[in-house]
Design goal:
alpha+beta, five-stranded antiparallel sheet, 14 helices, 17 strands, rod-shaped
Length: 607
């Protein structure tokens, strides 16, 4: 994946997406918090409304309790002229003290709209006695009231007030939106039932309660209703659902409980929060319906702003990626391409140093690193070359005393035998070997190397008489080519000392030279005992200081095992590169072929 795509993906994955998820979680948590807080607020509000409504009922209860305690209603029921008991009539100037006091109490509670009595004893011509008059209102006859379901309920309450709401019993309260109190009146002397009081109150007090309630800043989004247990709307603050059932306006089936309820539901096609509160001591419930859109409008606005901010962040991230990250990733991409060149072996690759700040430091760091790597390679190459030279000197130090001692001993034998010509030849061969060995030049012509090889072979042939014979076939045009000194002699020595060890036939050593394009091939072939693949591996690549390599020794003798071959191989590889060095082919009982690959360099090629 492209680096700039990775960075953009990382930015989106680690910043934008977590921020978006956090926003979504916050959004829904806030919605839930709003619903919970509104539920609590609605409960407090409905309790306050319920308390105010109950106070209205308590006030009227106190008024009627006062009238009963003072005998005002009993006097009206037992009076000879029931029509003269209208306490609001302006012509009634002659009232007793209790009547005057009660009349004053009525005027201090102007919520009373109408009051009358049912005479249950039948002492008067009419069973309905008006206490507080009301125009154009026809009361329910007493005979029909006795058949009404409320009659038995009022009698069973034994003087306790029974309240009925608008639209519950329109035959008794009429079509006006009034609440009515019905209670049994007893004679204070003998506690016999003498009548039934019916008091209707105006809805002014209820309207004051709802008008004084402030919930939020927009009351049109909240409506309050008084509903009975059957779901009939007794009072609607907005006067839209009076006398209707609330159930058709709610999507799901409404089940009232005795506890406070609050839930989210669709009301009149709009998602709303509905709260229900049961009035204490009354079979009615206060219901508030608040538009969810009104409650969540601030959170919705927040959500819109949040979405806009996220969109701006994404666009900004893309713009940042396009304008700024492209420059960074482009520079990094260039450096990566140059690193791949280095992987392919181009150690001279360098980045153009341009830009500023960290990018320039990165480019300089790459170039400096490559310079150091090249310097380290040169250092390693020098150290390896020094190591190879040191090994060569060790080899020479080992060869010279040992070889010189054996050669001198052979010369001494010849001298004792009076072989003067052979002594002279041996001395000449030894002098040639010593002259080339002590030469300070690391590279010599192939002609000198062949001369050195012949001298070595002749001396060894004299020492190991009838052990081997040799043949050197190198074209004349190769004699001027340059190569590291002591290249062929260690290869031939390997055949004599190890290849011919323990053989019962005459050994043969063949040295061939071939020119192939820009390189020359020097091949040493013998018909000795050969080597296994494990012995070949250990010969050139295994560290003989490692104890694990002791079981892979190619030859029984181990004094200088493989030292000459490894020295030649390392010197060629470190001096000319990995394309040059030694190739060894061998098989047990089939002899060994060692091919030396050297670049073709004549004496005049820069030497």
């Amino acid at each position: 994946m492209n680096l700039r795509i990775k960075l953009l993906t990382a930015f989106l994955s680690l910043v934008i997406i977590p921020l978006f998820i956090l926003g979504i979680i916050t959004f829904f948590v806030t919605f839930r918090s709003i619903e919970l807080k509104y539920t609590q607020q609605a409960e407090y509000s409905l309790k306050a409304i319920g308390y105010s409504i109950q106070n209205v009922f308590y006030e009227i209860n106190n008024v009627t309790d006062n009238g009963i305690a003072k005998g005002v209603f009993q006097e009206a029921l037992l009076a000879n002229d029931p029509d003269a008991q209208d306490l609001t009539a302006s012509t009634q100037l002659e009232l007793n003290a209790n009547q005057k006091n009660f009349r004053s109490l009525l005027y201090t509670h102007p919520a009373i709209d109408y009051a009358f009595l049912y005479n249950v004893q039948g002492h008067t011509d009419s069973n309905v006695i008006t206490i507080f008059n009301k125009e154009n209102y026809q009361t329910l006859p007493y005979e029909k009231f006795r058949e009404h379901p409320l009659y038995d309920q009022v009698i069973s309450l034994k003087g306790m007030p029974k309240w009925i709401a608008p639209y519950e019993y329109p035959d008794l309260t009429g079509s006006d939106k009034v609440f009515a109190q019905i209670r049994l009146i007893k004679n204070l002397n003998n506690f016999k039932s003498v009548g039934i009081l019916v008091v209707q109150i105006k809805n002014w007090e209820f309207e004051k309660v709802f008008q004084n309630l402030k919930l939020g800043s927009n009351m049109k989004d909240t409506r309050f209703m008084l509903v009975n247990d059957e779901g009939l709307v007794l009072y609607d603050f907005q006067s839209e659902l009076d006398g209707q059932s609330i159930q058709p306006h709610i999507r799901k089936k409404l089940h009232f409980t005795e506890d406070y309820q609050s839930f989210k539901e669709v009301f009149d096609g709009q998602e709303s929060v509905i709260a229900v509160y049961k009035l204490k001591d009354y079979p009615w419930r206060l219901v508030s319906v608040t538009s969810w859109r009104y409650l969540s409008q601030e959170v919705t606005t927040f959500g819109k702003w949040f979405a806009a901010i996220i969109l701006v962040c994404v666009l900004t991230a893309m713009l940042f990626n396009f304008l700024f990250m492209n420059r960074i990733t482009g520079t990094i991409g260039v450096i990566v391409r140059f690193m791949r060149k280095v992987e392919d072996g181009d150690l001279n690759a360098r980045v153009d140093e341009k830009g500023d700040a960290e990018l320039l430091l990165l480019q300089k760091g790459f170039n400096n690193q490559m310079d150091k790597i090249n310097a380290l390679f040169d250092q390693v190459k020098r150290e390896q070359l020094q190591k190879a030279n040191a090994e060569l000197r060790v080899l020479q130090a080992q060869i010279k005393p040992h070889f010189l001692f054996n050669t001198l001993e052979s010369i001494n034998v010849l001298a004792v035998q009076n072989e003067g010509r052979k002594v002279s030849e041996m001395v000449i061969r030894l002098a040639s070997i010593l002259r080339i060995s002590i030469n300070d030049k690391e590279e010599i012509g192939l002609g000198l190397e062949v001369e050195h090889l012949r001298s070595y072979l002749e001396i060894q042939k004299f020492r190991f008489e009838d052990l081997f014979e040799y043949d050197i076939d190198i074209p004349e045009e190769m004699m001027s080519c340059m190569l590291p000194k002591l290249t062929l002699q260690p290869l031939v020595e390997n055949s004599i000392q190890h290849g011919f060890e323990g053989i019962d036939y005459k050994g043969t050593i063949k040295v061939r030279g071939i020119i192939e394009h820009d390189r020359m091939l020097l091949r040493v072939e013998d018909n000795g005992i050969g080597m296994t693949s494990e012995q070949l591996t250990s010969l050139l690549y295994v560290d003989h200081d490692d104890p694990a390599a002791q079981s892979l020794e190619p030859y029984p003798s181990h004094e200088r095992r493989g030292l000459g071959l490894r020295s030649v191989s390392d010197r060629l590889r470190y001096g000319y590169g990995s394309k040059y060095g030694l190739l060894i082919c061998s098989q047990p009982g089939q002899g060994t072929i060692i091919q030396c690959v050297i670049p073709k360099q004549d004496w005049g090629d820069g030497r």
